């Protein structure tokens, strides 16, 4: 089925005069065939409505004696009310919508020709445009469907509404301050172009719709121009998605109602810079639309859809379902060339075929094989309407006029060269019927030369003899357009660059963080390795093993490290099978846990006792195998007897300290010091006087080993090992008496 194209001529506005009317509408010499089926079904009224006047006639701008005529599916003159247009063109599409077909309705035309009036309309009931009437029809049909099915079928209506302003998509359901510079992105989804991140609002009644629609329209970009006090500066697209759920299937279809911005001649609009930029963007997208239409009808390989967001979304000729184009035209001379250009585009659009394919329903229950799985996704082939040859040429066109045109090149539209006819002024009515007629004024019509020029896309092919002045004007217009387009692209390029910079900056930061993170992790791993080596060098194999194991996650694929760990494990296992009795016999005080645990059991260890313990330690160290691996060596802290004896009597503090060593009574200072050590918190311990990070770590490691060994060898829920005295503290690995003194002296209580 081809795109249905209907023309609507608007009435004269207050500032326009009857004398300037140049358009004529009239019945085609070859009326469109009335659908036999609809007659049979008794729908004669609709058939009559649609079989109305279907030709628009416009004089040749260069020779007023000649007239071009364009035939459309229907033509609605100035007297046609909103209701009539809706009943004839839009109401019939609603039933298709409910059968699962998508419907696209769009208004096309020059600025100020009545597109918004047609689509949105006025506030009064009679003035309501196509969109509110469409919604009203949808709700009425939904209620009926739900009622007829006794509530088994439900219909949900959801709305989306967005505009394309300066080739950026903005959600009209969102307030303008939420807009981003780049607008919303488009994506291709199964052959359809979708806007990503668009708000979809469920809407249950016409009243709710009116509220939403009015609110959203306040967000639309409109401005006053010289040609239209409320000119739309954007293309507005309303999507009405209906979801019909019956017990066995769900059908989704969408009606898209599009109010395109109108093309404008900037010499007539006297637009300022901002309006110029908008205008250039509007003109560019409409120019691309015209190019798409031309490319489709000429069966060209490449259709430039992607050159503008509007053409991408409209996807004329690629969208399934039904498409109705309403061409809005102004009847007056000041629009002469623009009207001619619009008529040309619309005339070509008629030849575009649209596949009448309904959306696939979603079945409930077990999955059914899709009837044509490839069809839903594949795009339809583009082809011109084959039966549309010379559609504008009325069958009864005068033969002599054909002969007369023999020598001329073929025209895309028919030309009547009969005598100038009386202008059907009665057809072009002003909206305000009470307005006094100006027909008595001096006939200025002829003196008013059209100031606008044709764009290169829409110059009729017969215009071989265009005057130099006209060419100059065309060139001037084109240059202006190109400059404005450049301004738009420069603006968007700068935006892109800014966004790119932001993105790059963010990525750089992330990268830095990652590198820093990995470097930190590597440094940590290396420090574990270093500590492991130090432990190993000291013969503390189990500590070394622990450090190697801690290093392993930082070097996950390091075979050497894995090998070291397994060797150490083996050695430790071998050693753990050594008889422990030897130790027990050496020092009955220590029991089987070695010196530290014996210290734990003897918190009041004296220096003498300590020395005895040291002797045992030395003995044990001597019993360690060559490889330094021993079951107890890692548990037994080394002593620094020399340092202990040397530093104990240095001052009063030392004396107090010595007392504590000897009698085990703990001062608040010592209790505090021990609580810090027992906290096993490296960050706290390293702050103690004379203790750096390494020493703090060594202390914590030593305590952890004690915990581990205690829990492994004694009882699993053994409480953590606690250092109970200064003496005990001084026996820890890396801590001598001197260190204990320092630590204690530094503690403030
Ligand atoms: N059929 C009509 N009956 C009465 N008034 C009309 C009709 N069509 C258009 N008008 C009037 O013409 C003027 C311009 O119409 P409108 O704003 O709809 O044009 P437009 O094509 O949407 O313009 P733009 O592209 O600049 O947005 C308005 O004042 C509108 O009320």
UniProtKB/TrEMBL annotation:
Residues 2-352 form the Kinesin motor domain. The keyword Transport does not apply. One of its GO terms (biological process) is microtubule-based movement. InterPro entries: Kinesin-like_fam, Kinesin_motor_dom, Kinesin_motor_dom_sf, P-loop_NTPase. It comes from the Eukaryota. ATP binds at residues 109-116. GO terms for molecular function: ATP binding; microtubule binding; microtubule motor activity. One of its GO terms (cellular component) is cytoplasm. It is found in: Cytoplasm. Residues 362-381, 421-462 are annotated as: Disordered. Keywords: ATP-binding, Coiled coil, Cytoplasm, Motor protein, Nucleotide-binding. CDD domains: KISc. Residues 494-521 form a coiled coil. Belongs to the TRAFAC class myosin-kinesin ATPase superfamily. Kinesin family. This is Kinesin motor domain-containing protein. It comes from Penicillium angulare.
């Amino acid at each position: 089925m081809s795109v249905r194209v209907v023309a609507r001529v608007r009435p004269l506005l207050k500032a326009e005069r009857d004398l300037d009317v140049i358009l004529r509408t009239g019945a085609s010499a070859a009326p469109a065939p009335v659908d036999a089926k609809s007659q049979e079904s008794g729908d004669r009224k609709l058939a009559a409505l649609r079989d109305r006047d279907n030709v628009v006639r416009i004089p040749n701008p260069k020779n007023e004696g000649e007239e071009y005529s364009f035939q459309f599916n229907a033509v609605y003159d100035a007297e046609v009310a909103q209701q009539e247009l809706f009943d004839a063109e839009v109401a019939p599409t609603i039933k298709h919508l409910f059968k699962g077909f998508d419907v696209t309705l769009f208004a096309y035309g020059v600025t100020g020709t009545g597109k918004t009036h047609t689509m949105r309309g006025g506030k009064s009931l009679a003035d309501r445009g196509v969109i509110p009437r469409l919604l009203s029809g949808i709700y009425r049909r939904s209620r009926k469907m739900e009622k007829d099915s006794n509530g088994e079928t439900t219909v949900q209506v959801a709305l989306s509404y967005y505009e394309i302003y300066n080739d950026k998509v903005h959600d009209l359901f969102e307030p303008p301050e939420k807009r981003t510079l780049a607008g919303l992105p488009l994506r291709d989804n199964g052959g359809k172009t979708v806007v990503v991140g668009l708000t979809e609002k469920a809407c249950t009644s016409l009243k709710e719709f009116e509220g939403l629609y009015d609110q959203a329209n306040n967000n639309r970009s409109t401005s006053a121009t010289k040609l239209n006090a409320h000119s739309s500066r954007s293309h507005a697209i309303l999507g009405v998605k209906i979801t019909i759920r019956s017990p066995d299937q769900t059908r989704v279809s969408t009606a898209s109602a599009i109010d395109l911005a109108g093309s404008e001649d900037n010499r007539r609009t006297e637009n300022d810079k901002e309006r110029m930029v908008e205008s250039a963007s509007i003109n560019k997208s409409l120019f691309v639309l015209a190019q798409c239409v031309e490319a489709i009808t000429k069966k060209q390989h490449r259709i430039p859809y992607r050159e503008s967001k509007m053409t991408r979304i409209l996807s004329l000729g690629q969208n399934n379902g039904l498409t109705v184009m309403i061409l809005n035209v102004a009847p007056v001379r000041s629009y002469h060339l623009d009207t001619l250009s619009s008529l040309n585009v619309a005339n070509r659009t008629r030849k575009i075929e649209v596949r009448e394919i309904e959306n696939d329903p979603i079945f409930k229950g077990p999955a059914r094989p899709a009837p044509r799985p490839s069809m839903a996704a594949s795009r339809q082939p583009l082809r011109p309407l084959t039966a549309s040859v010379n559609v504008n040429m009325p069958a009864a066109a005068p033969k002599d006029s054909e002969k007369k045109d023999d020598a001329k090149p073929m025209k895309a539209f028919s030309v009547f060269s009969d005598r100038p006819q009386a202008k059907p002024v009665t057809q072009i009515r002003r909206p305000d019927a009470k307005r006094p007629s100006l027909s008595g004024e001096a006939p200025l019509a002829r003196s008013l030369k059209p100031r606008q020029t044709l764009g290169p896309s829409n110059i009729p092919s017969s215009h071989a003899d265009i005057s130099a002045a006209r060419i100059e004007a065309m060139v001037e217009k084109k240059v202006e357009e190109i400059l404005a387009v450049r301004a738009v692209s420069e603006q968007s390029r700068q935006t892109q660059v800014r966004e790119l910079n932001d993105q790059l900056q963010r990525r750089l930061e992330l990268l830095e963080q990652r590198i820093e993170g990995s470097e930190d992790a590597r440094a940590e791993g290396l420090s574990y390795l270093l500590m492991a080596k130090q432990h190993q060098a000291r013969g503390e194999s189990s500590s070394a093993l622990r450090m190697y194991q801690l290093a392993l996650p930082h070097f996950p694929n390091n075979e050497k490290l894995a090998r070291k760990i397994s060797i150490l494990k083996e050695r430790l296992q071998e050693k753990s099978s050594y008889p422990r009795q030897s130790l027990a016999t050496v020092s009955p005080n220590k029991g089987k846990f070695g010196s530290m645990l014996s210290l734990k059991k003897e918190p009041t260890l004296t220096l003498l006792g300590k020395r005895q313990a040291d002797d045992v330690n030395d003995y044990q160290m001597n019993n360690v195998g060559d490889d330094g691996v021993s079951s107890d060596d890692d548990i037994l802290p080394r002593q620094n007897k020399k340092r202990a004896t040397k530093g104990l009597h240095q001052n009063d503090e030392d004396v107090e300290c010595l007392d504590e060593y000897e009698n085990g009574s703990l001062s608040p200072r010592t209790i505090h010091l021990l609580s810090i050590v027992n906290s096993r918190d490296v960050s706290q311990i390293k702050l103690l006087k004379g203790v750096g990070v390494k020493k703090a770590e060594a202390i914590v490691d030593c305590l952890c080993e004690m915990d581990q060994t205690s829990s492994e060898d004694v009882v699993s829920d053994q409480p953590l090992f606690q250092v109970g005295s200064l003496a005990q503290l001084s026996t820890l690995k890396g801590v001598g008496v001197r260190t204990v003194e320092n630590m204690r002296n530094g503690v403030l209580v």
